[in-house]
């Protein structure tokens, strides 16, 4: 099979690393890819939103399967474009990807179908939002309705902060048109868990659990980011909680989307909060998480192409997902100053250290080739992942491996997975 993966970050590098293990695959293309992906796939200079060019390329190269990984092209209808051209594609169509594309839609869906989530209200104008805040309890959460690179969520501790947040999202358009509508919801406390699940429109099969670290600085301080590191599995996500989620969240979500004539095929990402009142949905995403994919996929035993095809064909009920009985931790190496401002173009050394080291991975996120060298080309530069017999060993291995990489303005959190010390 010839495979085309759309995207160019750490998630896509992790997906391609899994695809490359499949005996069914003879050729992998990636648009646009990055310096690390280029070792496994032929990178094609086409942007993720250039649907016509992507489709033309796939036709020309007789691509058997297109895998659309990032949120923007999924929400905008990349899968629809491939399918319209007769090309098999993995990922939800636009009418299903709205579950991530609009937080207001997903909150209304949960309310309608009694899926547990935080209490909330939707607003389309700043005046109404500000009036509502005068009567609200704090802390409170403000969410830009649309896609905002994982950063469109503000946790406000008091009325003054919340008013400033409304201005930032709805009036100053800090997140662009994503802030035309805003969700205000109650602040939940508890343990966050990410569960990615394969879906074929009817059947949903959860993968192993993970936990992300969204804040830029140690101790969960600083601004929200796309994710600074992850660990898998989450020791807080017990079998009992998994059973509850299957019956009260996962299956009802699939059924709800089907009832709304928005059949969901692909990967559904459930961001969960284990609260004192039970498990509730924080958010849905319509694709593999980043950097969750970097700890979940290295632990998966299945041939990923078999799973992708089962999701497309509606035969996922015949697939038994299997994961290694181990653990994985990913530490993101970022450019100092991320997520606000940072410099690019610094040479990266030490990448060759990972070659032939079993259980160690370096997933490229923001890198490119320049004058024959791999240089930094983004806020999140690399995801250093290591496995171990348990989370403590995996964490020690991952942090050891971060020392193998050097580049100017390298920055990382030093407390990824620290929560496991409480277990």
UniProtKB/TrEMBL annotation:
Enzyme class label: ligase
GO BP annotation list: 'de novo' IMP biosynthetic process; purine nucleobase biosynthetic process
UniProt keyword list: ATP-binding, Ligase, Manganese, Metal-binding, Nucleotide-binding, Purine biosynthesis
Entry annotated with the keyword DNA-binding: no
UniProt-listed Gene3D superfamilies: 3.40.50.20, ATP-grasp fold, A domain, ATP-grasp fold, B domain, Phosphoribosylglycinamide synthetase, C-terminal domain
Domain of life assignment: Bacteria
Pfam families assigned: GARS_A, GARS_C, GARS_N
The keyword Isomerase is annotated on this UniProt entry: no
PROSITE patterns for this protein: ATP_GRASP, GARS
Pathway(s) the chain acts in: Purine metabolism; IMP biosynthesis via de novo pathway; N(1)-(5-phospho-D-ribosyl)glycinamide from 5-phospho-alpha-D-ribose 1-diphosphate: step 2/2
EC number: 6.3.4.13
Catalysed reaction equations from the record: 5-phospho-beta-D-ribosylamine + glycine + ATP = N(1)-(5-phospho-beta-D-ribosyl)glycinamide + ADP + phosphate + H(+)
Gene Ontology MF, one: metal ion binding
SMART domains: GARS_A, GARS_C
Ranges where the ATP-grasp domain occurs: 107-316
Cofactors required: Mn(2+); Mg(2+)
PANTHER family: PHOSPHORIBOSYLAMINE--GLYCINE LIGASE, PHOSPHORIBOSYLAMINE--GLYCINE LIGASE, CHLOROPLASTIC
Family: Belongs to the GARS family.
UniProt cross-references to NCBIfam families, sorted A to Z: purD
The protein, known as: Phosphoribosylamine--glycine ligase
Taxonomic source organism: Coprococcus hominis (ex Liu et al. 2022)
């Amino acid at each position: 099979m010839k495979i085309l993966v759309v995207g160019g970050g750490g998630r896509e590098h992790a997906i391609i690393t899994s695809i490359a293990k499949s005996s069914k695959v003879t050729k992998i293309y990636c648009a646009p890819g990055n310096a690390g992906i280029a070792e496994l796939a032929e990178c094609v200079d086409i942007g993720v939103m250039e649907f016509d060019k992507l489709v033309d390329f796939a036709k020309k190269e007789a691509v058997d399967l297109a895998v659309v990984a990032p949120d923007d092209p999924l929400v905008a209808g990349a899968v629809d474009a491939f399918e319209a051209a007769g090309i098999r594609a993995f990922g939800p169509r636009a009418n299903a990807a709205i579950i991530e594309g609009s937080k207001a839609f997903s909150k209304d869906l949960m309310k309608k179908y009694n899926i547990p989530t935080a209490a909330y209200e939707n607003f389309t104008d700043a005046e109404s939002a500000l009036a509502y805040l005068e009567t609200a309890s704090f802390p409170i959460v403000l969410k830009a309705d649309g896609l905002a690179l994982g950063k469109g969520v503000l946790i406000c501790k008091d009325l003054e902060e919340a008013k400033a947040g409304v201005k930032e999202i709805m009036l100053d358009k800090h997140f662009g048109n994503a802030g035309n509508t805003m969700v205000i919801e109650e602040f939940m406390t508890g343990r966050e868990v990410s569960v990615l699940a394969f879906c074929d429109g009817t059947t949903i099969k959860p993968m192993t659990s993970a936990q992300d670290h969204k804040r830029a600085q140690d101790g969960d301080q600083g601004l929200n980011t796309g994710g600074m590191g992850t660990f898998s599995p989450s020791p807080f996500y017990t079998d009992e909680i998994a059973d509850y989620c299957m019956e009260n969240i996962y299956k009802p979500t699939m059924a709800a989307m089907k009832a709304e004539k928005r059949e969901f095929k692909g990967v559904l990402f459930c961001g969960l909060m284990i609260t004192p009142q039970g498990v509730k949905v924080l958010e849905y995403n319509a694709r593999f998480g980043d950097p969750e994919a970097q700890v979940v996929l290295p632990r998966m035993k299945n041939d990923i192409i078999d799973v992708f095809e089962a999701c497309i064909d509606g035969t996922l009920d015949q697939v038994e997902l299997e994961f290694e009985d181990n653990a994985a931790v990913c530490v993101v190496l970022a450019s100092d100053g991320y997520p606000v401002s940072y410099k690019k173009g610094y040479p990266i050394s030490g990448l060759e250290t990972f070659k032939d080291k079993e259980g160690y991975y370096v997933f490229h996120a923001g890198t490119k080739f320049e004058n024959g060298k791999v240089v930094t080309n983004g806020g999140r530069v690399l995801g250093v992942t290591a496995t171990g017999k348990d989370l403590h060993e995996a964490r020690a291995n991952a942090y050891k491996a971060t020392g193998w990489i050097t580049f100017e303005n390298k920055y990382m959190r030093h407390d990824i997975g620290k929560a496991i010390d409480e277990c």
